[in-house]
Design brief:
This is Rhodanese domain-containing protein. It comes from Phytophthora nicotianae. It is built from eleven helices and twelve strands. It has 357 residues and is an alpha/beta fold. The longest helix has 22 residues. The protein starts with a helix and ends with a helix.
């Protein structure tokens, strides 16, 4: 991979493990065809299953972002693609439920919500700081800081479901995440270890659903241009913003990742409605928080008075002094994560608000 793709100018990040391969790549436009031919050949030569061939859809050149999220080709060998913390046995990712295209997912979820069908469990399998700013209507949120805690939290959700439904398991589980990867593991766990056979996953995750909405709205606009009749377009069942880690997930979508203008989150400090994630201005902390513009001004972008004090202190230092100071003091700030669930009781926004679906 490194030899062939490096020569093509491909950059990105690839993880290789026994359970599969995961990668996010940026391919120079002149090398797209050569890359397309090399990818399946490389995996076939290594006797690896490489899944379905993804159809290349033509894109509007105006939608292509010039920003590059990667600067080199980084290939890493891992024990797992996604650390799941599960020690109960192997997970066969080829048996993880069914993938629903976004248009079918939209219709099924709409019908489920209209019928108020609680026997169908809708799961948001992302971390809590992701779904606190955006989620699908009717979703049960798995409240975890990291994916490795997901299965334990999911067991509790399933136990609660059975208590509320006379000991019955969900007749169907619909689940989603950002791009679809986490759903593969959760789906495998549900089908192979929890006895739930009807598992439906949103194909391509929220990112693909956003693309579906955009295509539907564009089609409706085009139809209006050729007809005087009103054309109905799909409304989003996802409310708020889609949390992304970096530009690789955004594609042709806007940088704000806003799906609707619903504000579901709460400022970490004052508790006012807020959907804006930022990192603490104290670089030794750098904790991820939701912070409104007023608190960002008052706190100088810091998550606490202690971090604000450190930020002000380091601002008066030269770059070399800052580096030396961080080396000497950084350990006392790690692994503190101010937005962690363990600190949720100290937040102005009540836990009840954060648990709302």
């Amino acid at each position: 991979m490194r030899e062939q793709w490096g020569d093509l100018g491909v950059v990105g990040r690839i993880y290789i493990a026994e359970e599969g391969i995961n990668g996010q790549l940026v391919v120079p436009e002149p090398a797209v065809n050569a890359f397309g031919h090399s990818f399946p050949r490389l995996l076939r030569d290594a006797k690896l299953f490489y899944g379905q061939l993804i159809e290349d859809k033509p894109r509007n050149t105006e939608e292509i972002k010039p920003a590059e999220p990667f600067h080199k080709l980084d290939i890493r060998i891992r024990d797992q693609i996604l650390h799941d913390g599960f020690e109960g046995g192997p997970l066969d990712l080829q048996e993880s439920g069914y993938s629903l295209p976004p248009e079918l997912w939209h219709q099924k979820l709409l019908e489920r919500n209209e019928m108020d069908d609680s026997s169908t469990l809708v799961l948001d399998v992302r971390n809590f700081y992701e779904h606190e700013i955006g989620r699908f209507d009717g979703a049960t949120r798995i409240m975890v800081d990291t994916f490795r805690d997901t299965f334990d939290a999911l067991d509790e959700i399933l136990d609660q479901h059975e208590k509320e439904h006379d000991g019955q398991k969900p007749k169907e589980v619909m689940m989603y995440c950002t791009g679809g990867i986490r759903c593969e593991k959760v789906g495998a766990y549900l089908t192979q270890y929890k006895g739930i056979s009807n598992v439906q996953k949103l194909h391509g995750g929220i990112v693909n659903y956003m693309r579906f909405l955009k295509e539907q709205r564009q089609a409706a606009m085009d139809a209006r241009g050729h007809s005087d009749d009103a054309v109905e377009e799909e409304f989003s069942l996802f409310k708020g913003k889609n949390f992304v880690f970096d530009q690789r997930c955004v594609g042709e979508l806007t940088e704000s990742e806003e799906v609707t203008d619903d504000v579901l989150g709460r400022c970490f400090q004052c508790g006012e409605p807020c959907n804006h994630h930022t990192n603490c201005s104290n670089l030794m902390c750098h904790g991820l928080i939701l912070q409104c513009s007023n608190c960002a001004t008052t706190m100088l972008g810091a998550c606490s008075e202690a971090c604000k004090h450190e930020y002000v202190k380091m601002e008066s230092m030269t770059p070399d002094e800052q580096r030396n100071y961080r080396k000497a003091n950084a350990l006392k700030w790690k692994p503190k994560n101010p937005n962690s669930l363990k600190y949720i009781k100290f937040r102005p926004a009540s836990p009840e608000l954060l648990q709302e679906a």
